[in-house]
Design a protein that fits this description.
Radius of gyration of chain A: 25 Å
Helix content of chain A: 55-70%
Radius of gyration of chain B: 24 Å
Strand content of chain A: under 5%
Number of domains of chain B: 2
CATH architecture of the largest domain in chain B: Orthogonal Bundle
Largest sheet of chain B: none
Structural class of chain B: mainly alpha
CATH class of the largest domain in chain A: Mainly Alpha
Number of strands of chain B: 0
Shape of chain B: globular
CATH topology of the largest domain in chain B: MetI-like fold
Helix content of chain B: 55-70%
Largest sheet of chain A: none
CATH class of the largest domain in chain B: Mainly Alpha
CATH superfamily of the largest domain in chain A: MetI-like
Number of strands of chain A: 0
Strand content of chain B: under 5%
CATH topology of the largest domain in chain A: MetI-like fold
Number of domains of chain A: 2
Oligomer: heterodimer
Number of helices of chain A: 14
Distance between the termini of chain B: 11 Å
Number of helices of chain B: 13
Chain lengths: 303, 294
């Protein structure tokens, strides 16, 4: 009988399942399952990549899973430079730069406001702050359809409907619950003595925030940046409703390009444009690795 | 011991943006939406009180019933498959396997991408004339059929497939961190007692994962209620209106058809559904008096 020798002091990040025996039928089955699952997850990406590298003449043959016979990067250039939405043929690059211009201020502002709110909620006292936090959390879960129409009216009345400011404000508003939650939990987990010492030294609300807490927040800021960059980049709904025709983000433009009904469908160009749109979050994902998972854990499990 | 924390003006200044957001952007807009749903508003909001007439109209609209029905089918399918697949993947990854990181990265990457990307990728793969169906036919099975994406009665299942592809990695990640939190001693004890592995999973591990499962179900449910861009990119709600979902219904009636009375009534229904899902969960997660809260 195989006596399971457990390594002493094995802690959380170690696998906790039963200890493997040698290479038995079970183990082989396990790997077969994992490989099949991996194939299912990789398949669409594979299809997108090979399609984007084929000329249309090959695509029309219907061999969607085959490698290209005549490799070409022409679809990529076309997708970036000259793909059309209706009569505009500026390529997906227009959407890319719009998304960047939306992303940068939205990420910075939403994280700053979230950090400030989380700091005030976790380390200072204010009347009604628990209620504020509760409603804020609730807001994170409500369907956006409830907010959209009145927000359009409010934005119109202050003149930011369909503008860059409008979409940045929207991302800040709807990013606030998660950002606040992240920073509130993070500041609450720091040793309170630190805060007390700063108070004894005469630090005020703002001095402690800017000089002590923000500089100590690097890990949680990284998590917040990952969450916000992927979230805002992938947004479609707010972009299509609030950004205005001049500022449509990449996701909206992509959908317009691919699902437009005019002319022959250029599947290779469409797939190149689709991969280009997925690129920013994918890079974030692959570069950030465990941080991404941490972000999910922080954002999903507790919020 | 309670720490003495000062109340001061700066705290209120700092909380002011959040206060504005909560009062105007969340509560104000929510009440306004509900208010409009009780008026005769069409293109513009009016104050002509309509009682529950918009709601009666809404539920007499077959497109709304189809949307709701689709949401339920999509919800049940997505949640069931994601939970099972997510758990199996997590349990498999938890067997001290090689290349664990690689596998985990592969299972989770779709979650990083936009629903639009997911929808368009699957739309292309399942294209009946040039996609999977044609490929298999070219291989020699000439009467192979998989044209669900253009069939009224099957297209919603395609939405489930794409949704599962995108979201099951998330459930895998949550389940895996749940499994990693389980005490190694438990496996030792089970081994000594000679309990087969699958029984340990079914009778002990899964019940222990209850909080993770609840979280997963809530997160997926919220995604289900919100589903919009996935459907838009994948099927455009079609063929016809056969894959329409409430979120898309609302957007179309708000902007395309300019019938805000009906759209806000539909929004209010969604709001009620979400409140029913999350209120008990939020209470359980955050406000249950289990331990000292900071």
């Amino acid at each position: 009988m195989a006596t399971a020798t457990m390594t002493a002091g094995s802690t959380a990040p170690e696998p906790s399942g039963p200890r493997p025996k040698r290479l038995t039928a079970d183990r082989v089955g396990l790997y077969v399952f994992l490989v099949i699952a991996a194939a299912f997850f990789l398949l669409p990406m594979y299809v997108m990549i090979v399609t984007s590298l084929k000329p249309m003449s090959e695509i029309r043959l219907g061999n969607i899973f085959s490698l290209p016979e005549a490799w070409t990067i022409e679809p990529w250039l076309q997708a970036w430079n000259s793909a059309c939405t209706g009569l505009n043929c500026g390529g997906i690059k227009v959407g890319f730069w719009n998304s960047i211009r939306i992303l940068v201020p939205s990420v910075i502002i939403s994280i700053f406001v979230g950090a400030l709110t989380g700091y005030a909620l976790s380390l200072w006292r204010a009347r009604g702050s628990n209620l504020l936090f509760a409603v804020l959390l609730l807001g994170a879960f409500l369907p956006y359809q409830v907010f959209i129409y009145p927000l359009v009216r409010i934005y119109s009345s202050v003149g930011i409907y369909g503008t860059m400011a409008g979409i940045v404000v929207t991302h800040t508003i709807f990013g606030l619950p998660l950002m606040t939650l992240l920073f509130r939990n993070y500041y609450a987990s720091l040793p309170i003595e630190l805060f007390k010492a700063a108070r004894v030294d005469g630090g005020g609300f703002w001095a402690i925030f800017f000089r002590l807490m923000l500089p100590m927040s690097t890990p949680i800021i990284i998590v917040a940046v990952i969450l916000q960059v992927t979230g805002i980049w992938n947004d479609f709904l707010f972009g299509v409703v609030f950004a205005g025709r001049e500022n449509l983000p990449m996701t909206v433009q992509l959908n317009n390009i691919v699902n437009s009904t005019q002319g022959e469908k250029l599947y290779n160009v469409n797939m190149a444009a689709t991969i280009l749109t997925a690129l920013v979050p994918l890079v974030v994902y692959f570069v950030s690795g465990r941080w991404f998972v941490r972000g999910i854990a922080a954002g999903a499990v507790k919020g | 011991m309670k720490t003495r924390r000062r109340m001061n003006v700066a705290t209120y200044v700092a909380l002011f943006p959040a206060f504005i957001v909560v009062v105007f952007a969340y509560l104000g807009t929510m009440l306004w939406t509900v208010q409009i749903s009780f008026t005769e508003s069409k293109l513009l909001p009016t104050f002509a009180f309509a009682g529950t007439r918009q709601y009666e109209r809404l539920f007499a609209t077959s497109r709304w019933s189809i949307s709701l029905e689709n949401m339920v089918i999509f919800g049940i399918g997505l949640i069931a498959v994601c939970l099972v697949l997510g758990f199996l993947l997590a349990a498999a990854l938890d067997q001290k396997i090689r290349f664990e990181n690689t596998f985990r990265t592969i299972f989770l990457y779709p979650y990083a991408m936009s629903f639009i990307v997911t929808g368009l990728a699957w739309q292309w793969i399942l294209n009946p004339t040039l996609g999977l169906q044609q490929y298999v036919r070219n291989l020699g099975w000439t009467d192979f059929q998989f044209d669900w994406i253009i069939r009224n009665d099957r297209a919603i299942y395609v939405v489930i497939i794409a949704g599962v592809w995108q979201a099951s990695g998330l459930i895998m990640a949550l389940m895996l961190s749940g499994l990693r939190g389980i005490d190694q001693e438990l496996w030792k004890a089970a081994k000594i007692d000679g309990i087969p592995t699958w029984r340990v999973y079914v009778n002990i591990i899964i019940p222990m994962l209850r909080p993770t499962i609840i979280t997963s179900v809530v997160l997926l449910s919220l995604a289900v209620v919100r589903v919009y861009d996935l459907v838009l990119a994948l099927t455009g709600g079609g063929p016809g209106i056969s894959t329409d979902v409430p979120a898309k219904f609302i957007l179309d009636y708000l902007f395309g058809r300019a019938n805000i009375g009906l759209a806000t009534a539909a929004s209010s229904i969604l709001l009620v559904i979400v409140l029913v899902i999350i209120t008990p969960w939020l209470y359980y997660e955050y406000f249950r008096p289990k331990r000292e809260r900071r």
